[in-house]
Every structure is written in C-alpha cells, then in structure tokens.
Amino acid sequence: MNIKRLGAMTWARSLEFLRDRSALGWNFAFPLLMVAGFAWIFSGPAQPIFKVAVLMPQGMTLQTASHPVAAAPGVQFYEESDEATARKKVERHRIDLAVDLTQTSARYFINPASQKGAAVEALLKGTGTLANGTAPAATRIEQAGEGIRYVDWAAPGVLGMNLMFSCLFGIGYVIVRYRKSGYLKRLNATPLTAAEFIVAQLLSRLVLTFTVTTVVFVGCNLFLHFRMEGSYWLLALVTAVGSYSMIAMGLVISARVTSEELAGGLLNLLSWPMMVLSGVFFSLDGAPKAVLWASQLFPLTHLLNAARAIMLDGAGLASSAVATPLAVLVACSVVFTVLGAIGFRWTQD
C-alpha cells in the first residue's frame, strides 16, 4: 500500500465533502436544531406516565405471579432480572419504581427525589398492591440519586442518529455514484489499488464525521451543559469505533451496487429501523423481548448504550456497560470491513 497515493485519495475525498456547502451545513445544523428542539419541547413538567420494574423469582413471570402487584391497573410493569440494574434505573429516574418479589417479604425501591415515584407509590398503596390482606406490606428502600434531564438522555441519541446517517450515506451512496458516473473506472486505470481506495474512503469519512460530531457536541454543550460523569477520552474512543462500524456497514452496501436508487433504498432499510429500535428518542426498558433482541443487531444500539453509560453513569472501560458494547462494535467493524473489501468492484460490469 502506497502511503502517498492513500493520502492523496483521502485528501481528495475530504475536500469534495468540505466544498459541498449544503451537505456540510446540514451536518452541523440538523443535530443542533434537533437537540435544541428536544430541550425546548421537554423542558416542562414530567408527563404522568408510570413505569415499574418487577424483579421476579426464578421461573416465575408476571402472568403467573400470585403477588397482587402484578395486577395493579394503570401502571406499566415489566420484568427486570438484575437488582443492581433496577436500582440504577430508579436512581437515574429512568423508571419510577422497582418492586422486588424475589425475597421472602416483598420490598420496593424508590427515589425520594422523584415526584413520579411518589405518585406511583401512593397509587399502588391505594389500590392495595403493595400491601393487602393476602400479602405482607412491602419494605420501602430509598434509592437516592440525582435525576437527569430528558435532553441529557436524548442528546447522545440525536448526535448518534446524525452520525449514523452521515456514515452510511457518506460512503454507501457516494461510492455507488462514483461507480455509476465512471469515476471508479478512471481510478482503476491509475496505479491506485482497490485497498488504497477503500482505506482512503474509510479514513476520510471517519475523520469528517468524528470532527463534525465533536464540534456539534461542544457547541450544544456550551448552552445546554450536558451531564458528563465519565471520561471524555473514553467517549471519544466509543464514538470513533462506533462511527467506523457504521462506515464499514455502508461499504458493504456500496461494494457491488450499481444503482443509486437501489443504494438509497438499502441504506434507508438499514437506517430507519436502526433509528427506531436503537433507543434514539426513547428508552426500550419494558419493550417486548423480540424488540430488545432486534435492537442488539444494530451498531447504533451499542454505541448509544456505551455513550450513555459514560455520560450519565460515569462508567469506565472496565465496566461491562462499556466494554461489552465496545467489543461488539469492534467485531462489527472487522466483519463489515472484510465483507465490503471482498465484495468491492470498480465497474458496473
């Protein structure tokens, strides 16, 4: 691989993007407008919608549980398998209450600073689902913790969504356009190798998307003051690896496709389910198991999970909340890069 040719190709692709002022402006303006819009829309009081996690004994489900909490009306219940996870969600106001039915006597976890938690506690007590004639009174355990604003939770999702579209379409659509216009055919007549061209495209898109995302994050942070409990360097690492995995995914689409219309359709087929199922705008806690399973197929899910764990919970690299998603992103990057390189062709023939 010739470093000089690689550098020249990378610089040429970067200049092409930078000179497209409309695309460049949109990459900056779109996430800024989205984050600011969410900050304004959700700046009012919390909506009276309750979500309660229930820790069940091994082998028991909410449908078969004999405890009356499973039949309480007006509250969305979902099964949670791990007590530490449930308590952390209560602490961060992600859920309003967690009820533990795995012990001999029931107990529940509540954040004393949560107004919704207090409301759902009163509701459950009033309906007799935390104490009635057939079940002993549940023990109240406070799980204190500072709440987070919706914009703190949504900002990683909005920035990740913008990054996803930039990565997928920035390489998946552009290479197809190069192939259809004959530009790749002309490059094939030069000493440039396929490996040099692919690496140049990947590097150029990675640097550009990472830079744009960083600038937007810093700009939004100046007036919204995002919650940041963890390391900026670790967040940058997760962002870089997540970006590359989605760039490589775009390469798989563009490796052999010759039609811009087909490329656009395939990229939308990837991006829209990813945007809906990766937790960009709302938490998937309590979602059906099939939805949770499907969400794990997308790199954006693991990128957002790791980013939120770093920003909101202060998780480090040794934490499974960061290490596991990061490992999945690395694996996706390797698999997509290999598939894209194997399938790549210069011309439409």
SSE blueprint:
Layout: H1 3-19, H2 21-41, E1 51-55, E2 76-79, H3 83-91, E3 97-100, E4 107-110, H4 115-126, E5 139-142, H5 150-181, H6 183-188, H7 194-224, H8 232-254, H9 260-277, H10 289-295, H11 299-313, H12 320-343
Parallel strand pairs: 1-2, 1-3, 4-5
Antiparallel strand pairs: 3-4
Description:
There is one protein chain. With 349 residues, the chain is an alpha/beta fold. It folds into 2 domains: 234 residues, no CATH class; 92 residues, no CATH class. Helix content is 62%, strand content 6%. It has a 5-stranded mixed sheet. α4 links the parallel β4 and β5. α5 runs antiparallel to α7 and α11 runs antiparallel to α12. The relative contact order is 0.12. The model has no long low-confidence stretch (mean pLDDT 79).
Briefly characterize the structure.
The chain is α/β, with parallel strands linked by helices and 349 residues long. The chain is built from twelve helices and five strands.
Q: Secondary-structure element sequence?
A: HHEEHEEHEHHHHHHHH
What is the helix content?
55-70%
Largest sheet data: 5 strands, mixed
Low-confidence stretches: none
Please give the order of strands in the largest beta sheet.
2-1-3-4-5
Strand content: 5-15%
* DSSP helical segment count: 12
C-alpha end-to-end distance: 25 Å
The total number of structural domains is 2
